[in-house]
Amino acid sequence: MATSLKLCPFYISTGSYNSGGRSGALSFRKPITVRCSAASGSSSAVSVDPDSFDAKAFRHNFTRSENYNRRGFGHKEETLELMNRQYTSDIIKNLKENGNVYTWGNVTVKLAEEYGFCWGVERAVQIAYEARKQFPNEKIWITNEILHSPNINKRLEEMEVQKIPIKEGKKQFDVVNKGDVVILPAFGAAVDEMLILNDKNVQIVDTCPWVSKVWNIVEKHKKGEYTSIIHGKYGHQETIGTASFAGNYIIVKNMTEAMYVCDYILGGELNGSSSTKEEFLEKFKNTVSKGFDPDRDLVKVGIASQTTMLKTETEEIGKLVERTMMQKYGVENVNHHFISFSTICGEIDVRQDAMYKLVEEDLDLVLVVGGWKSNNSKHLLLISEDRRIPSYWIDTEQRIGPGNIITHKLKHGELVETENWLPKGPITIGVTAGASTPDKVMEDALIKVFDIKRGKALQAP
Fold this sequence. Notes:
Layout: E1 5-10, E2 32-37, E3 45-48, H1 55-62, E4 68-69, H2 76-87, H3 90-97, E5 101-104, E6 107-111, H4 119-134, E7 140-142, H5 150-158, E8 161-163, E9 166-167, E10 170-171, E11 181-184, H6 191-200, E12 203-206, H7 212-223, E13 227-231, H8 237-245, E14 249-252, H9 255-265, H10 277-283, H11 294-297, E15 301-305, H12 311-329, E16 338-340, H13 346-358, E17 365-369, H14 375-386, E18 391-394, E19 405-409, E20 415-419, E21 427-433, H15 439-456
Parallel strand pairs: 4-12, 6-21, 7-8, 7-11, 11-12, 13-14, 13-15, 15-16, 17-18, 17-21
Antiparallel strand pairs: 1-2, 2-3, 5-6, 9-10, 19-20
């Protein structure tokens, strides 16, 4: 869905702006203008007016205020015990104890060396659980899904952690009152959301400070007057947040769009895919900063990425842009026109590497378990599909059955139903999961596979 943008004024007048230490809510003496997304599911800021607001200074003080917490509340042991009961798996444990390979009946399962829950995800969920323990009677809100995991999101709903309601594509922060608790999800939050919550003087629980690494990169771009080329999905909460901390930016979702941008920089000499300035601005009208001018703003560029993008594609885009600037300005001048820092999450990186290794095995099919909104799960699917291995991406075990039928998503997002997806006779299945997927969800899916293969749905006529 296209993301449209509009200007929204916020008047911050509560508390005091303290640059020297911890304080309560922060304030500014003049109104701050932010551009808000009216896309369905998000009203987060996409950029701020640099003449009236220093996003880096605000974030620095926001994360040091008395109302901000990202270290937990001292309930780690008991919350981890609860999570172990809810999310661990005997089947996955058995696989890990046997070199990630085990055979049940006529099904051999080969588990990727790195898969599923990463440390950051576990930490995010654990801190959300701690918040409920620490504030048993307060209203707790969350600005978005904590993760792209249906199982975990349902658990939080059962704990009465409520999502900020959305009306006409805009989050309704007026439901949040002073004294409430607001959880920032693992994807982070954009500047305008932080401004609103700061003004309301609520308790903030930040579940994943690691996304701030990308924010630091685009702030460096801004300081050096480089335009940020952000590799990401422009409707994704993390990319919205990253763009809100950037100066000039353009978001490209894949190599095709990156090639279009580079072709424009070279005046059509790359592959001829670009056209006029007007057509460029029309093509990227939803994914560029306010007042973006490709003739002016693509002279100095830096690369950043949504942390869950496919690492190899981000690297290829970075190399393409670097070659483009070399061709345009000369090898000796490239450092004045191009900078790049890796912003792919390390945990996502190792899971992708493990998937590349898994698909080298002799496999009959691959099962990817992960939320259908999960970008990193999608990229695991892409790796196996590129090897032409029959691959099935499901979000829960409920997508398997009845009988030998599976409902799954393809790499471009199509939802399809496939019959007789499990062949008769002995089979070898490669299994992996996105970084937000608990072991228990993988176990539930494998149990469905074992039930089918025991002959309930594959009996010969």
